[in-house]
Design goal:
Elements lengths: L3 E3 L5 H12 L6 H9 L3 E6 L5 E8 L2 E9 L8 H13 L5 E7 L3 H9 L3 E6 L9 E6 L6
Parallel strand pairs: 4-5
Antiparallel strand pairs: 1-2, 2-3, 3-4, 5-7, 6-7
């Protein structure tokens, strides 16, 4: 169950349900997911069949932008997001030397998760989200030379 694999079109319905469970109003639509699946430089990995977790990132120039990571609420605190995060860094090896992400300032679970994995808070974007919440900018260095 902890084998990480690429997300494919067959995961779409389950991924939409997970998006709702993880992000609510900010969930990606079917069209947005298709765009990510087709994006050059995109890394879209999943865990479980049926899917119970996913991570999506872009490798742009020598930087990795982590866009989303999410796990089924029923399967959290079992290390699955950590496994996905590790697999993402392996997939990005040789393509990115550092990574960055934005996270909602009120997302206590995600902030604890990123800090635990060595990410460092490097900035804040005020009122970045549609509801007025700030985004915190996190960075992870030392992924290896691209
Ligand atoms: C953030 C998220 C991906 C973590 O997934 P997970 O599979 O539960 O994470 P892990 O089990 O690998 O957690 C690893 C460590 O992160 C920290 N952590 C994770 N969730 C936490 C929480 N709710 N509160 C405090 N610390 C937490 C802990 O240090 C944890 O280790 P521990 O369980 O041994 O204490 C999950 O909560 C989620 O899907 N949230 C909704 C989507 C989201 O906000 N994504 C991030 C923004 S894109």
């Amino acid at each position: 169950m902890t084998t990480v694999r690429e997300i494919h079109a067959g995961d779409l319905d389950r991924l939409l349900a997970l998006q709702q469970a993880c992000f609510g109003d900010e969930a990606w639509t079917r069209g947005m997911i298709h765009e990510e699946l087709d994006r050059p430089g995109g890394i879209f990995l999943g865990i479980g069949s049926p899917l119970i977790g996913f991570v999506c990132a872009w490798a742009v120039l020598d930087e990795l932008h982590l866009l989303q990571i999410g796990v089924d609420p029923e399967a959290r605190r079992a290390g699955l997001a950590s496994v996905l995060h590790g697999a993402l860094l392996v997939a990005a090896r040789g393509r990115a030397s550092a990574a960055w992400l934005e996270v909602r300032a009120d997302n206590v679970a995600a902030i604890a998760f990123y800090l635990r994995l060595g990410w460092v808070e490097v900035g804040r974007r005020p009122r970045y989200y549609a509801d007025g919440e700030d985004a915190l900018l996190f960075r992870l260095e030392g992924l290896g030379a691209p």
